[in-house]
Design a protein that fits this description.
The chain is of the alpha/beta class. It has helices spanning 16-32, 54-57, 60-67, 71-85, 125-131, 160-168, 183-200, 261-270, 275-286; strands at 2-9, 37-39, 88-90, 94-98, 101-109, 115-119, 133-134, 141-143, 148-151, 173-178, 203-212, 221-222, 227-229, 243-246, 253-258. The radius of gyration is 19 Å and the shape is globular. It comes from Deinococcus peraridilitoris (strain DSM 19664 / LMG 22246 / CIP 109416 / KR-200).
Length: 295
């Protein structure tokens, strides 16, 4: 599987047509490089707030309803691009109004035209307390012609049991679209992604939003680097540290990786350690809780 991760720069756009052209050009570049699965970051769709009125741009509560008329066009654009280029495409997540609330949704588009999605399940304080975005429900494993994959949106990657549930359902690859303001936030998601790769002996792949958007408090500053991580075993990373590839910090670019899923499955059975298989043993050992010893 050839994977492409966008270090995607937020832009101030003058029209919907300009937005469509930007996303189309990015997609075409990765497809022409031979990528089969393309990943855009969390809240990449929020650059569409540049198309709203100044009052809506400056009020985080007004942005959510004002963005909803763009949702169908946003999904159809990515659906058309997936079909046109014959790729699987994880679109930048979009705040979707559904059942009386807003959820952070990443749409997954297939070459044949099918549209699926994964919602973010654990929300940051800003999302719930300031912005009013609520957690979604349920995990999905996407069984593609390239392999089985799942999605943990940004903060979700910091909670081991979410990735574990996906791995137990057959996911070999975990996509982690992210949007973090500070370098500390980026590293939390990066370290979470690396830990999930270690625990489950799976590939994890982070795609960050980068750049600045002074007109929008939600994405005013964005920091990160794309990275692909694998099991810490022979044959996965040049330095033996599980880092398959990593992009340059805060540079607009695609980061590519060729993933060997057969090798991944083999190491789960015969690796130097078998973390994925030993997970239940660790759960059993932890079940009684820790004994407090007073000195």
């Amino acid at each position: 599987m050839k994977l492409a991760l966008a270090q995607y720069p937020v832009s101030y756009l003058q029209s919907w047509e300009a937005a469509a052209e930007k996303i189309s050009n990015w997609t075409a570049q990765a497809a022409e490089a031979g990528a089969q699965v393309l990943v855009f970051p969390e809240y990449a769709s929020m650059e569409l707030t540049s198309l709203l009125s100044v009052q809506e741009q400056q009020d985080v509560k007004k942005q959510l309803p004002a963005l909803q008329p763009y949702r169908e066009r946003f999904v159809e654009l990515h659906r058309d691009l997936a079909r046109r280029h014959g790729v699987y495409l994880l679109a930048g997540s979009f705040p979707v109004h559904e059942d009386g609330r807003y959820v952070n949704r990443a749409y997954f588009l297939a070459p044949g035209g099918r549209v699926e999605f994964q919602d973010k399940l654990v929300m940051t304080r800003f999302e719930t307390d300031t912005w009013g975005v609520a957690p979604g429900k349920g995990l999905k494993v996407f069984d593609t012609a390239c392999g089985r994959l799942g999605v943990n949106i940004c903060y979700d990657s910091e909670f081991p049991h979410l990735a574990r549930a996906l791995a137990q359902s057959g996911a070999d690859l975990l996509l982690v679209p992210s949007c973090t303001e500070a370098i500390t936030g980026y590293h939390r998601v990066e370290i979470g992604s690396r830990a999930r790769a270690l625990e489950n002996q799976m590939y994890t792949a982070q795609s960050p939003l980068i750049g600045t958007a002074p007109w929008n408090e939600v994405i005013d500053v964005n920091t990160g680097a794309a990275g692909v991580y694998g099991p810490i075993d022979h044959g996965f990373s040049p330095g033996g540290d599980g880092v398959v590839v990593k992009g340059p910090l805060n540079v607009a670019t695609w980061v590519y990786a060729d993933l060997d899923l057969a090798r991944l499955r083999e190491v789960r059975e015969n690796g130097h350690t078998i973390n994925a298989r030993d997970w239940p043993h660790g759960v059993r050992q932890a079940a009684p809780g820790a004994q407090v010893v007073t000195f």
